[in-house]
Amino acid sequence: MKLKSAIRKERQRRAKAARERDERKLNAAKEERLLDTLKQSFRNAQTRELKRQQGFFLEDTRGFVDEKFRAWLDDAKSRVFWLCAGPGMGKSVAMAHLCKQFKEHVLAVHFCQHNIVETGRTKRILLSLAYQLAQKLTWYRAKACEIAAEIKSDDSADLTWEMFFREPFGAEEAKGQKVVLMIDALDETVDREEASSIVNVLIRNLKTIPDGRLSIAVSSRPEVDILKAFNGYEPLKIECEEKSNKEDLGKFIKARLKAYDMDEKCQNEAARILQEKAAGMFLYAKYVFEQLDAKAKDEQLALGDIKGLPDGGLDGYYEATFRRIFGGKEQAHFRSKFEGHPLKRALQVLVAVQRDLTLWELSKIVEAKDVEDAVETLRPLGGLLKTPPRANEQNDLVQLNHKSVRDWLVDETEEKRNTNTDEWHDFHLDIKRAHTAVATFLWTKWLPPYLNMLPLGGKLGDTAANTKLYEGNGLKTGAQTLLAYAVRYCGAHAAASGDSRVVEGYFTSLPVYELFLRVCPNAIGDLIAQLGDAARRSGEDQLAAKLEHWMRWAQPVLLPSLKQDPRCVYPYALQMPEGMDPHNKAEQTKCAWVHRIPESIRVTRTDAFRALSQQLLELKGHSDWVNSVGFSRDG
Predict the structure, then answer these.
(1) Beta bridge partners of 215
(2) What does the pLDDT read at residue 30?
(3) What per-residue confidence (pLDDT) applies to 71?
(4) Left (φ > 0), alpha (ψ -120 to 50) or beta: where does 60 sit?
(5) pLDDT of res. 278
């Protein structure tokens, strides 16, 4: 009996161990799926940007920021640390330093970047932060796994917050540690005045988490909508003329001047001059030292070189740079020369694009002769680009060095928005015209070869169909990235430009929706948002009504089409009520697409298509009775 009992207990122990092992494997698989899902919203560029900004930090500066942050951490009831300063003041560097200095508290950081629009979208920010928490906190990863299966691409930002922040940090496991989420550059987020903006989502939902568990640290410029949203929270402001800021800037300038062969008296005088010219802006100092470094390679610097640098901080530096590029002294000369220069076209693209472009992509959009021609066009910008373009590296990204360059070129400040054009500086760019230039190129020159191929055979991910799409039009396979950009953002450029011709052409084209499903299946929510934005911005009642028809069709159709077949967009449009624009377009173009729709869609008996067969087989155009009909076997 004892032997049988021992055998039974051993078997039970082994069975229990096997169940526990299987459960651990299942949980590990769930955690892996969770991380894979969240990682789609976390770009490696975030890690690179953090390290880049930390590399700019000079020890023994920004001590007052450290002190304020430490005091804020000690205050269990304070939810928001807000660093507020103007452009070029070193906000991102200070935030990156705080991440390193207080890494036991700051467990997730997100840098919004003006040149990558996706980094400023609310859900992208929240999921990026969630991914970093899931990597660092075991208890959080386990909690998040419980709801990971519920994630949907059309979840609202508030629901995303509830799933990944309110629920986990409302649990008992979250007690005992003050976790800080850091978001840099709120002024570079999108749709800031919408209820779904990251600022409004944070303000609405942060109070739903018990005190002392989760807090946020943010930075921004002092812009009206952000000041209004954070009304009631006291920011740590850094002013240009503030004593502590000027002291830190002085330390930075003196540290950099030590690299040059100058005596102490000359260095002190140079530091004083640079401090005045910089007007409290670290970015100005960074720019001029890059310029001085280049000159010091060939000759010894003198005090006259320092005195010859532009006055007036960043604005003065940018204007002097462009005046040097175009030469001359008369205002009329600058404006006329800039107007017809290929550099203006390149700058229009750079201030309007929704993500960084490669050198090859930029050369196509500006319609340069080749990559070498684009390089020559951009070369005069020098340090205003993050890295100098190289003709033998056509996949290098072309990026403006800082958001302030774009802001100076576009100058959308409230006081300038409605002023006479004579009051703009000589190199001002109209942002609407910039969007128009990009939208027109994408719609009239880049997308047509692809759209003319549709509908295509095969479902999403079909290799043969993708090969035909990417290579069948004679363009290089390398054009895939620009195709993805054109498909995803042509509508956004069109809506921002107000060009009704491109807006109507893009958003009321059935092939556009099929192409979007094939090329950017994970961004359908963006397309629907762009459609709604275009409808709101449209100044023409007739066009706005037409776009509303497409909105009513797109919302319930596009996501199901992902699971069935991208070609479903055509028969789904035909099923809309007669008189609605999607139905009219499908009816008018039926001869072009009906023979490419597979049998499984054409004669299905599902509720969605119960009347489809009759609609597709309906004959129109005759004026009398039809006595006989012949059908060709090959369609």
Answers:
(1) 180
(2) 53
(3) 94
(4) left
(5) 94
User: How many residues are recorded in the chain?
Assistant: 635
Residue with tokens 């500066």: 61
What pLDDT score does 35 carry? Answer: 55
Euclidean distance between CA atoms 386 and 383, whole angstroms: 7
Residue 241 makes CB contacts below 8 A (sequence gap 6+) with 280
Beta bridge partners of 182: 109, 217
Buried b / exposed e over 162-196, threshold 16 CB at 10 Å, is bbbbbbbbbeeebeeebbbbbbbbbbbbbbbeeee
What gap in Å lies between CA 195 and CA 202, rounded to an integer? 11
Token pair listed for 411: 């100058």
Q: In the structure encoding, which two tokens stand for residue 120, read together?
A: 């400023």
Do residues 406 and 117 lie in contact, with contact meaning Cβ atoms separated by under 8 Å? no
Could you give the C-alpha distances from 195 to 84, 233, 527, in angstroms and in order?
Answer: 22, 19, 19
Taking alpha carbons only, the member of 534, 539, 474 closest to residue 505 is 534
Q: What is the chain's Cα-based Rg?
A: 29
Dihedral of CA 580/581/582/586: which sign? positive
- Tokens 């020559």 correspond to 376
Distances (CA, A) of 606 to 597, 601, 609, 611: 16, 9, 6, 9
DSSP label at 89? Answer: S
Q: How many CB atoms lie within 10 A of CB 360?
A: 20
> What dihedral do alpha carbons 359, 361, 362, 367 form, nearest 10°?
120
Task: Give the burial class of 215: count Cβ atoms within 10 A of its Cβ; 0-12 exposed, 13-18 middle, 19 or more buried.
Answer: buried
Residues 356 and 166: their CA atoms lie apart, in Å, by: 34
Question: Mean pLDDT for each 10-residue chunk of the chain (635 residues)?
Answer: 69 73 60 56 73 91 94 87 93 95 94 84 88 87 71 73 88 84 91 80 87 90 89 91 93 92 89 94 92 87 90 92 78 72 92 89 91 90 83 84 90 52 76 93 91 72 58 56 90 90 92 88 82 84 88 81 77 84 88 75 46 50 65 56
Question: Cα(427)–Cα(323) distance, rounded to whole angstroms?
Answer: 9
State how far the alpha carbon of 255 is from the alpha carbons of 224, 268, 291, 296, 533, in Å: 36, 11, 16, 16, 49
d(CA 99, CA 129): 14
